[in-house]
Design brief:
This protein has 214 residues and is an alpha/beta fold. The chain has one domain: 3-Layer(aba) Sandwich (Rossmann fold). 40% of the residues lie in helices and 18% in strands. An eight-stranded mixed sheet has the order 3-2-1-4-5-6-7-8, sandwiched between helices. Helix 4 runs parallel beside helix 5. The longest helix has 17 residues. The radius of gyration is 16 Å and the shape is globular. Bound molecules: NADP nicotinamide-adenine-dinucleotide phosphate (NAP). NADP nicotinamide-adenine-dinucleotide phosphate binds next to helix 1 and helix 4.
Amino acid sequence: MQIAILGTGKMARGIAYALRETAHDITLSSREAARAEQLARDMSAENARTFHGSSYHAATARADVAFLAVPYGHAAGVIASVHDALQEKILIDLTNPLNAGFDGVATPEGTSASEEIARAAGPRVRVVGALKHTFAGTFAEPAINGGPAPDVLIAGDDAEAKKVVAGLVEAMGFGSLDAGPLRVARTLERMTVLLIDLASRNHWNWNAGFKLLH
Ligand SMILES: NC(=O)c1ccc[n+]([C@@H]2O[C@H](COP(=O)([O-])OP(=O)(O)OC[C@H]3O[C@@H](n4cnc5c(N)ncnc54)[C@H](OP(=O)(O)O)[C@@H]3O)[C@@H](O)[C@H]2O)c1
């Protein structure tokens, strides 16, 4: 598959690294194409495989699947800038609408970042909420302290798109669980708030995640 990663920050790098051994064609992208091109060159050299780098729009235009790895507060602007290129594609939204104190969400009751992003992207884009509480540091080694890897809970209204996302997160080394429709992102985003609080109070050094036993 052709994969676009929108953003060059901690999550973008983690996702690219975690997919390094797959056959997918991966393009990192940025507001500044030169920044993504440089990151792609560096990651290609470090990992003995090819990553591409480009602008958000060019990466989205050639993608089947795009990861939205930008702050929620800037997501609407990024979506607007790639709107035409995104149509008919799968958009994996990993944004958390955290408030300034990281102890709650900034979105009102009755919606979520993923639902707002789906509205902005339009009905022809299959938005899937995933990786919301996958800490960036765990992409390098999903097994927590040598134990099991966390599960990625996946919310979305399109079953086929959720299967594609499940395949990608499993290829990264995580477990996957279909958590239900896109509105379940309201819960997933609040679970992130809980995990941040737990990790912070227990000094887990951001090496933590949720694993469901059943
Ligand atoms: N960090 C985590 O552990 C974690 C875990 C789960 C989910 N998330 C979510 O994943 C998303 C990305 O998090 P991150 O930790 O990767 O953030 P980050 O390291 O700060 O990177 C964010 C990226 O967003 C891009 N961006 C686009 N427009 C921007 C703007 N106006 N201002 C600033 N940056 C802008 C930047 O890339 P360019 O400048 O190259 O365009 C930047 O590299 C967030 O929504 C976060 O809630 C994070």
